Amino acid sequence: DTEVTQTPKHLVMGMTNKKSLKCEQHMGHRAMYWYKQKAKKPPELMFVYSYEKLSINESVPSRFSPECPNSSLLNLHLHALQPEDSALYLCASSLAGSTDTQYFGPGTRLTVL
Amino acid sequence: GEDVEQSLFLSVREGDSSVINCTYTDSSSTYLYWYKQEPGAGLQLLTYIFSNMDMKQDQRLTVLLNKKDKHLSLRIADTQTGDSAIYFCAESILSGGYNKLIFGAGTRLAVHP
Question: Which residues in chain B are closer than 8 Å to A41, comparing Cβ atoms?
């Protein structure tokens, strides 16, 4: 099973709202990732967690706050977003270190009004 | 520098072979990947090749790697309408002690009857 699940599938939020995106995998992977993908563009890396610790933050604004409560779950907390943050947010996981193949979830389509 | 380039669009007739090309710049790439993305969906791993290989075949998919020219190609035999999607080439490179994926812009494959 190479499945990464993400909820919700779609999310519409106002600029003053607080919301969270969730990602889950049960493949025993110990590295998890958040990517942002704008329309007609490739995914851009935001964060990497390795063994539940934040390893990489690609200079992402603080209105995006990641959290890894355990090895199977990855959250992305959203607060005071801007309309330009509207995008497809993709979660991925890999077996252990970052050299391993990344498997992606279906994404959450976020619209900020 | 890190750069992956792909042609943006390819149109083929159903039943023909499709060849999607990709060039990359970092000679230290460990793995090279092909991902498929259908409209509104996440990235599906299609296949990957280790940098010391020159060919990999998996059913209808053939990956060719020319490491000297830093050129990667994906051939899809007997292309079907279900193959219509965006195909991303990605290289895995070492950056700050971490292997990160660098994606190309994606090639949109259109399959027509």
Answer: 105
How much helix, strand and coil, in percent to the nearest 5, is found in chain A?
A: 5, 55, 40
Both tokens assigned to B55:
């060919």
Query: What does residue B61 show for φ and ψ, rounded to 5 degrees?
Result: -100, 135
Cα separation of A21 and A77, whole Å? 6
Query: Per residue of chain B (113 residues), what is the pLDDT tens digit?
Result: 568 999 999 999 999 999 999 999 887 778 899 999 999 899 999 999 998 889 999 999 999 999 999 999 999 999 999 999 999 999 988 766 667 889 999 999 999 99
- Which amino acid, residue A28? G
Cβ of B42 within 8 Å of Cβ of A99? The answer is: no
Helices marked H in chain B — which ranges? none
For testing the chain A interface, which of B44, B101, B102 should be mutated: the one with the most A CBs within 10 Å?
Answer: B101
